[in-house]
């Protein structure tokens, strides 16, 4: 019996050193964990780098780094791939021979397609971000790097087709000198449903712009930038103008399309429906038929009228002279008073008509100005110099209108305080 007990005791003797060895390893692991930084990754994608202090247990350190303890560090979406996966978004990778990009680009660059299908093309991260912020609805994104998509608001990408293509393919279809690797197909924005910036709405003025026969995309884009910068409440484009959503106009506009309401492709009969009550329409035209006759000699000496007259108005003049000979004048050319652009013309809500450099303003714009009590606005230029670029003329008139409205507001505030 004693031998049996002795044998059992000998068999159980190694258990104690093993337990002591495991305990020693555990304590050593805990000490190592205390000395090493702890990275906590929460389900929301927030990451906290934290080094527990001496004497603190790892569980306690993680608890202190929780949302109920220390505020976690915010990480941009591009650095948190877990957020992308949790959003449930998926993208397709275009294989060799994939024609989706070429098919879309061939069609979306056509104005009839844009007007029929209600789709537009936006290129570049900044322009796309501005469009998403204003409430434009995306349909398809083509991108060369996943980071470009991760920079966009995830809540705006649900239900959008995401297609990863080679950068060379985007470069082949891009209009930019330096392509940015992302293109977006959007539903054509509706100015009624857009959410324009609060600062833009706060600085909006009773000043409108009407574009008449503007054919140059670069000029129109620049004019839209000036309209947004001056605080125009609305921009109206009549039929005959270049499409406001053409890629070249969008590029020249630098985001102005999503800062000021734009109503495109209007008939002249519909223009008054978009004007506030009692609006006066002013025509920026220093080449009109009656400008030289109605301007003073002093104004002519300073070059306040231009030397050339538009061939289109020449045609009206000849036809009217023929009618006068037969005693049947149609009165096609309204007689509008001419004044310098820097005289007060903003006493009522004002709309400025800017005509294209080739065709000038239309007869319909002159008739609308006459019916609303408007005038011609002349910008003084040195004698012998041709008329100003339409984009430059629009900028001068719009910011002059802004200056007059600001002075009027200051005088009203001063009179009210007294």
Strand content: 15-25%
Q: In what order do the strands lie side by side in the largest sheet?
A: 3-6-5-7-4
- Unreliable stretches (pLDDT < 50, length at least 5) are 8-22, 29-33, 52-69, 77-82, 288-324, 326-330
Task: Report the major sheet.
Answer: 5 strands, mixed
CATH topology of the largest domain: Alpha/beta knot
GO molecular function, one term: identical protein binding
Biased composition (Low complexity): 54-65
Domain RNA 2-O ribose methyltransferase substrate binding: 121-192
Pfam families: MRM3-like_sub_bind, SpoU_methylase
Would you mind describing this structure in some detail?
Helices cover 41% and strands 16% of the residues. With 418 residues, the protein is an alpha/beta fold. The protein folds into two domains: 89-187, 2-Layer Sandwich (60s Ribosomal Protein L30, Chain: A), CATH 3.30.1330.30; 198-414, Alpha/beta knot (3-Layer(aba) Sandwich). Strand 1 and strand 2 (47-50) form a beta hairpin. It is elongated. The N and C termini lie far apart (119 Å). Residues 8-22, 29-33, 52-69, 77-82, 288-324 and 326-330 have low confidence and may be disordered.
Which keywords apply here?
418 residues; alpha/beta; 60s Ribosomal Protein L30, Chain: A; Alpha/beta knot; 2 domains; 5-stranded mixed sheet; 17 helices; elongated
